[in-house]
Amino acid sequence: MPDVRRRSFAARDRADSPLLPGPNLPETSSQNSAGLGGSRVPALVAAAVALALLAGMVIFGVVMFRDPAAAATLRDIFLIILGVQSIIIGLLMVALLIAMLYVALKLYDLSHFIQTGLIPILHRADDTMRTVHSRTVFISDSAVKPVVEIMAYISAVKSILRSFTRHTQ
Question: Please, what sign has the CA dihedral across residues 149, 152, 158, 163?
């Protein structure tokens, strides 16, 4: 029994098209340089920056270890900066809380306005539309419909009279 296998569309397209490189064809040098060389540069830059930061921290630690008075002064400065930063963050948190409460109150006012102001207006508009509809139906039934029926009878009578009075040739 012969082994009949279906090739996928991609495999058939590769076999039919001479422009697409197949699995056995070598890649060109422009594809190599764009694929691998381009992705190594950011990694090398990041590694160089990390090594520079690490070397800077080691040198800073050695200098601070040799001069304890400068290290104590620097420590105090950093503690003051951290304290001021904590106060600023706390004030921003309070401001954010106040802003959230303001927005919540405005949403409550909006929902209250919709319930007390807008819904009654919509009910009145609905009542008005129902009244207009009922009156148009009434006027149509009581005034327009009889006039249309009378005009239809008149037109029928005219056409009957025309058919009797028409001269035959």
Answer: negative
